[in-house]
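Piwi-like protein Siwi
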Amino acid sequence: MQDLAQHTRVDPNGRIVKYNNFIKRVLTTPKSSDSLKEWNLTLSNALITINGHVLPQENLFYGDNHKYPAGNNNDWTEKLRSLPMYSIIKIPCWAIVTPHMWSSDVGQFTNTLLKIANTLGFKLQRPRIVEIENAHISTYSIHLDRIINELKPSFILCVVA
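Predicted structure tokens:
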């Protein structure tokens, strides 16, 4: 996630550098500059500067009707990981259907999910994990019918290949 954030969460100065590099590449690449000339278009080698309206900082709401400021960078992901959810629904019974070969990965995923849910104030019960022998559609269908009729779960997570 941090690798992706490095490219998507660019500060204003970094974004200006990226735009200027893009403009430079377009103007110095023969195919691009020829295409612009063909259409009788020009591209400035610098960005224009305009004064924009600065909006007031947003407040974000979380559980128990508390709020916190989004911050100057509007990056609330840190708080999102540690504060209770705004609204919590109950999932008393749920199931995970997984091919047998992935059962250990599903177990690790489940433990992580339950830990995070607890941190967020979401009381999620341990799921019923149903291991199936293969990943054929008919196998999923048979087990899903059985789970729905016997457990009547609120939610089913299917791990597919």
